[in-house]
Write a structure and sequence with these properties.
Two copies of one chain form a homodimer.
Chain A lengths: L13 H15 L5 H8 L3 H13 L3 E2 L7 E2 L1 H24 L4 H11 L5 H15 L3 H18 L6 E2 L4 E2 L2 H7 L12
Antiparallel strand pairs in A: 1-2, 3-4
Helix pairs in contact in A: 1-2, 1-4, 2-3, 4-5, 4-6
Chain A binds a DNA duplex (30 and 30 nucleotides) through helix 3.
Chain lengths: ~190, ~190
Amino acid sequence: METWKRFHEKQLTHSMAHYLQAIASLTRAGGTSVSAIAERLGVSKAGVTSMLRSLTTRGLAKHEPYGDVTLTVEGQRLAARTERSRDVLTEFFGEILGLDPATAEEDACMIEHLVSPDSMVRFLRLTAFLRSDHPTAERFREAFREYQNACESGTESAHCPVCHGRCLRVALEELIDPVEGEKESLS
Amino acid sequence: METWKRFHEKQLTHSMAHYLQAIASLTRAGGTSVSAIAERLGVSKAGVTSMLRSLTTRGLAKHEPYGDVTLTVEGQRLAARTERSRDVLTEFFGEILGLDPATAEEDACMIEHLVSPDSMVRFLRLTAFLRSDHPTAERFREAFREYQNACESGTESAHCPVCHGRCLRVALEELIDPVEGEKESLS
DNA sequence: GACGAAAGTTAAGCATACTTAACCACGCAG
DNA sequence: CTGCGTGGTTAAGTATGCTTAACTTTCGTC
């Protein structure tokens, strides 16, 4: 029960990951500057300066006052990994789970820097496998679509024919935000 | 490109989610106290007091100085949802992706409060489906295991027979932390 | 009913990641 | 070669979520 505290010991914070991605992307697009990063991320220039100092200290970026901004090799590596993680997750959420693109993108963005490399590899394999022309994968896509539809319009009974025994709708209902009329109790 | 800033606007922070879970769990086990929460989470009692004030302000817990600790209905709901999310994700990472239990637990813990309810529902369905005795699911488990094994000991060539064209090992290699001898460059 | 330990609290301090306001640096126009 | 505007910086302030140290409250024991 100590795992949870490692949240803040992750190699990259959510902010740092997005700074690295922004710098990498802007560099590819021709050139980076404090203003460009600020605009891209929607933060103040002062915030960028301060984060660049922090990234430089960590050996992920190079930046001297009034100088230009570049990533170190390590910074480039982490930027690339984070970008690829986000892409893999977006594809998984969108293509496999069937989420709408906006939610898929958002969920991927939230967790991209938190999922272990080992998991990422397996997400990638699973997504690739389920999207491939492997006959089992094709059959899966068909069956899972039916399964989801049946579940969507499923029975209210405890014995769901789709779920082979226990109907998942019970659990689902509790997962989706139900209560919406109690927000004013926050005073 | 503004999604990333919503990270800190999430309903629950990582810490808050774990406080709610701890309180719920301790309540079920007989009784909650500041000390018990502190011990469970491995934080100081002062930290607990301060977080309880914050949770009370947000309408998720009830706590008066030197009084006992309880969750509001909303707090209970969020605690239950978070716990269930973690369970679903742990099952997915462990049973479907095939991660070792420790990593599965850790990854689930990191992202449980960040994944949208909609995604959680689909994670649940996918896990349930792939673990079911549905014939397609059974075939999937077999095929995906073979696929992973083949990938693990796969070819070095660009044309991988498993991946039906482009070998994923290229991408995998970049995802897994490779460089390990540059850590002292942080000065 | 006083006493001391355990439980709980406040206060002060730290780190992160922002904000605004105000101040510096630099290059180009005249 | 002066001056001004843009880009960039520091400084100070905010919020979160911790820490330790010191203080208060409560309660069981005698």
